[in-house]
Amino acid sequence: MSMMRAVVMDAPGAPDVLRLAEVPRTTRAGAEFVVKVCAAGVNPIDAKTRAGRGSSRAITSWPSILGNDFSGIVVESPYDAHPIKVGDEVYGMTPVPRLPGSYAEFVAAPAMSIARKPKVLSHVEAAAVPLAALTAWGAVVDVARAREGQRVLVHGGAGGVGHFAIQFASFFGAHVVATGSTRNLEWMRELGANEVIDHTRSRFEHDLDPVDTVIDLIGNTVDDVGTRSLQVLRPGGLIVNLPSGSWPTLAADAASAGVRSSGFSVSPDGTALAVISRLIDSGDVRVFVDQVFDLADAAAAHEALESGHTRGKIVLRVAD
């Protein structure tokens, strides 16, 4: 096969710039795998890049293929003795736009950015995991060092990253407070939140005892969620802000409030993803897929994502 189906865009724009096309099949170089994609995750960074923000500055040629997350079957391995073999089921991330993305029938991925797919998940479910779970793991475990006795506030707890952040913080023993809409309150409790706050009915800074850490998945562009969060942090507490570009004055604002701050950028870390796989297979962590679209309907998937009402993740079904 010298060609493959892929969703491409010829220039940034609205969701309708995404179109299905026949393009040259992805090729492998160095220590990379080629994976036959069964499903691809859809993430906010995809929509931002499509719209001309996000990672769009790094796109050097057109048409471009979006998509970081994938789950599928290995068709080419870096070398014969590699522990992951041709035919194995894997999932992971690819560094878009340095490499073509996963909105395609085949994807190339560096060996260090993949792991074996959790046995208990379908490919559609697995494709919802890598970017969101690794982002949550990095913020909650690596940066915030979630632990017993710690009070952690997660903003946007029902989203793709948020529903993993709740589970990871709870797994490591933290007391978790999560904000979300009315319909998601009980679900966030089921994920492990000890307290939930309905952001449509109350102001969290009025109802909350001080916390040690804030995992800010909203940013300061919506209702001043970021600066309001500084009011609920203990002196010396930590706020981790994840939406890129959502709070340019974060460091200065946090310092003025007497607290620490950090941003975070996810890395396609196959080793951490393998740990997450074990937590999923053991039943300690769950993944929730809200909607599934066929590859050809990627534009509709982006419209659904940008509506802001997604619980968990949106996934593209690429192949059976």
List the helices and strands and how they pair.
Elements: E1 3-8, E2 19-24, E3 32-42, H1 44-50, E4 69-76, E5 89-93, E6 106-110, E7 114-116, H2 123-127, H3 130-143, E8 151-155, H4 160-171, E9 175-180, H5 185-191, E10 195-198, H6 204-207, E11 211-216, H7 225-229, E12 233-241, H8 250-256, E13 260-263, H9 270-281, E14 289-294, H10 298-306, E15 313-317
Parallel strand pairs: 8-9, 8-11, 9-10, 11-12, 12-13, 14-15
Antiparallel strand pairs: 1-2, 3-4, 3-6, 3-15, 4-5, 5-7
Helix pairs in contact: 3-4
3D architecture notes:
It is a single chain. Helix 3 (130-143) crosses helix 4 (160-171). The protein has 320 residues and is of the alpha/beta class. 26% of the residues lie in helices and 28% in strands. The longest helix has 14 residues, at 130-143. The two termini are 18 Å apart. The protein has helices spanning 44-50, 123-127, 130-143, 160-171, 185-191, 204-207, 225-229, 250-256, 270-281, 298-306, and strands spanning 3-8, 19-24, 32-42, 69-76, 89-93, 106-110, 114-116, 151-155, 175-180, 195-198, 211-216, 233-241, 260-263, 289-294, 313-317. It has two domains: 3-129 and 287-317, Medium-chain alcohol dehydrogenases, catalytic domain (Quinone Oxidoreductase, Chain A, domain 1, Alpha-Beta Complex); 132-263, NAD(P)-binding Rossmann-like Domain (Rossmann fold, 3-Layer(aba) Sandwich), CATH 3.40.50. The protein is globular, with a radius of gyration of 19 Å. The model has no long low-confidence stretch (mean pLDDT 95).
